[in-house]
What we know:
Blueprint: H1 13-25, H2 30-57
Helix pairs in contact: 1-2
Amino acid sequence: MEDRKAFLLRINPELWRELEAWAQEELRSVNGQIEYLLKQAVHQRKKAAARAAADSEN
C-alpha cells in the first residue's frame, strides 16, 4: 500500500457536520468521505477534459 499524505484542513463547522452525517450514512469516516468525494471530483474533471479535447478535435 502506498504512503498517504497527511495535511491540515480548516473547514466550516456546518460543512463538517454535513460531511460527518453523510459519512455516517455511507459507513465511512469523515476522512474517508472527503477522500472519496475528491476522487470522484478528479475522475469527473478528467472525463470532462477528455470530452472537451475530443470535441475540439471535431
